[in-house]
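Target chain:
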Amino acid sequence: MAKVEIKVPSVGESVTEVTLSSWLVEDGDYVKLDQSIAEFESDKATFEMPSEAAGIITRVANEGDDIKIGGLVAYIDTDAAAPEKPTEKIEEKKVEEKIEVITKQEENLKSEISNLQSNYATGTPSPAAKKILDEKGIDTSDVNGTGVDGRITKEDALKSIVNSQQSIEKKVEVAKETIDYRPSTADFSRSERVEKMTRMRKTISRRLVAVKNQTAMLTTFNEVDMTRIHEIRAQYKKSFEEQKGIGLGFMSFFTKACAIALQKFPAINAYIDDENIIYHDFCDISIAVSTPKGLVVPVIRNTESMSFAEIEKDIKRLALLGRDGNLTLEDMEGGTFTITNGGVFGSLMSTPIINQPQSAILGMHKIQDRPMAINGKVEIRPMMYLALSYDHRIVDGKESVGFLVMVKDLLENPEKMLFAGDPVKTLLEL
């Protein structure tokens, strides 16, 4: 018997171990070449493993097992023949299904004929009865007609009103009797359940603790007036979508503003490597995305050279991949700066934690109308708090504040990001 060993493939230089999250085939199933047989979860992403051969599979590892890269997962008996298709049974089932459909059709036809044969007057109210029932909102189907051929008379309508009132009163009395104002024991349940942390959640936990312990993290705050962005989106969103095939959201404004500011303040776009500082002349911005399995940070690369439409399309692509659990390690590696939006969950202010080895992260928050002093007058403006957490070992206070002020200025005056005087013209052309 020829057996092929199925082992965990390499999924990246930094990944040494994965978790078998679920089997996609049963033990003893016949699997085809390249058929997905199991789903694995690494520190950063979930991936499916294809079969390297066709044959009968014998599972070795169990769901929930942590397996080293190159570790044995299953055997496949390549000498085993594919099971024969039960064609006769399939044909027999099809015949039975057709017979069932025909029988049902005959029954429906008989029912329709019976309905047609019934007297047209049955259940039909007289004009006076109809007026009474309509005023009280009573359905004719709830009234028993005692007139000729089952017609609903005025007396039937009046009787139904009395019966309806009595029924309501009875239900109220029963409800009063059955109401128990004592709290249910279920309201004070003290049950507990234990769930194993997923590999992604364990990785997130480990990295967050490492950031707090290994960096000199500090957060500076500012606020941005979103009025101008609201105006641009309200006025040009439809034209933008028609020409570019994508909606004009807030994230493209923030991503573009950060990309421009990062080039002005290179320390915020750098990271520490032992005793060296690695600077980047490109802006690969990680966008935090909440998924059913946890927070992930896929990367939009070279944002400094991208248009608004390109940024929006890439954000949408990565968000869909994250939602469906199809993000790869390549999608999430190599970011130089991170943006996270707690505002979508209603957060008014927070201190985001740096995404190592990056030196800074920008936190967006909820847009809220607030009274602001504008040119000596109080006006209601849509305001958002911004939070920049940074590694004080590499980023000084002057640089952090300067970066955040520049981002604020670009957002409040988006024309400066659009290279031309006419924002809509530039938006649509970029």
Observations:
- The domain at 199-429 is CATH 3.30.559.10 (Chloramphenicol Acetyltransferase).
